[in-house]
# Entry
Amino acid sequence: MLRLSNLAVPLDYSEASLRRLIERKLGLSPGRLLSFTLVRRSVDARDKSDVHFVLSLDLAVSDEAALLRRQRNLAPVVSAPAAPLPPARFSRPPLVVGAGPAGLFCALTLARAGAKPLLIERGRPVDQRAADVSRMRQSGLLDEESNVQFGEGGAGAFSDGKLTCGVKSPWLRDVLDTFVSHGAPEQILTDPKPHIGTDRLRPVVASIRREILSLGGTVLFETRLEGLILRQGQVAGARVRSDGEEREILTDTVFLCIGHSARDTVRGLFADGVPMEQKPFAIGLRIEHPRELIDRGQYGSFAGHPRLGAASYKLNCHTPDGRGVYTFCMCPGGEVIAAASEPGGVVVNGMSLHARDAENSNSALLVGVRPEDFGDAHPLAGFLLQRRIEESAFRAANPVSGSPSFLAPAQRLEDFLLNRPSVGFGAVRPSYLPGVVPSDLRAVLPDYIVRNLQLALPALDRQLRGFALPDAVLTAPETRSSSPVRIPRDETRQAAGVPGLYPVGEGAGFAGGIVSAALDGISSARAALERTGA
# Structure
């Protein structure tokens, strides 16, 4: 098998035309190209007059050696054998706390090794959550078209399903293959920016959970970690609460996969003596444009081509104070959604369905935040900074005391740049539900965040024409892009000074997305399996 890379093809290529192109490019006579498989397909839109695909393909040809000698753009396909899982030798079943991507893939790895893990999830099963949302809509608490992102305890696994990742890992393909085997679209294996979509992700998550159960694992829903049981400084178990009652689970191995919003759990672990430290993160807002404007800005006259779909972008710029401003979690043809996990606070996020065909496209627009911005040296001070901003947003958009509506403050981009409150919106209709209130975001975000965003917007507009559209909608705040806390761990991936405790994923400060969290879950499970087998 040979790998052919960087093959430029038109958007309308067919399998037959692709075969002819390969044969012509490599000088193959008819019959020598036995088969070909798509490995990667990306869009080259640098020249807006010639938007095309760039392919990587694996080829089966007769007489590979002769072809290799005369074609420098070919390379042999070398696949390293997957490292086998060490057998499980735990004295008691390991406990995995949290069913987001880190927890699911950690528990799945343990289950495949025969460990029969216990997986605890603060929320309800997917089908019951859907019923809860239905009842909320019937009662009028949610609009019929509202999308809900569930808070802490597995939120990452019920999000948008973006699978981009900058982490190099031998388990990366395993993560994607697992998603596909559980119902994700096969195109995530070849797309450089793979995306499942909220509507397709939830049944995938349920299917992964069923595999864990089929391998002897146990899933405990509506269960919360209350604290650890430590004996001579080592993990001996955990205290959990379910149905209003607290009980103990005895185990010498606990994986903390709690996500970046489980603040009460983190506080309890800190009280138990688990070491923690402040960590830089980012704060900002969601910026929303018409999908067609972004498509034209990226694809020119090719915008709207059925094979291109909704366009994405990734922008960043330096600012004078060195913080930098960047886009994150871009949602083509998506919506801005509610992501609060505590009463009295507003948090926004973004999502797209698999089709990515909504009216607007949105992205987080974030500013770097440093520990010295937290206002206190306490390891958990970053949580207080987040909460102050979230509560300011709630007060700005929900002035009636006790309001349960979670309206969000929003502002036209032009008004934001001119430091004037918005009184309405223009050509861009805010997508956030249950709704937005025209506001002045200076009352919500710290001055240094506002200042950096105002400096960055014109610069980003030079990178993507139309980004600083006057009617673009800014909805705030986005405070949960990552955790402001890290739980240090040693070379064995155990918490420093707490043997048996494995901090994993975003909540522990070691990941920044679905795939990186899943990879961290796999690596931590493997580390524990190797430790018990040593």
Notes: Confidence is low (pLDDT under 50) at residues 139-154.
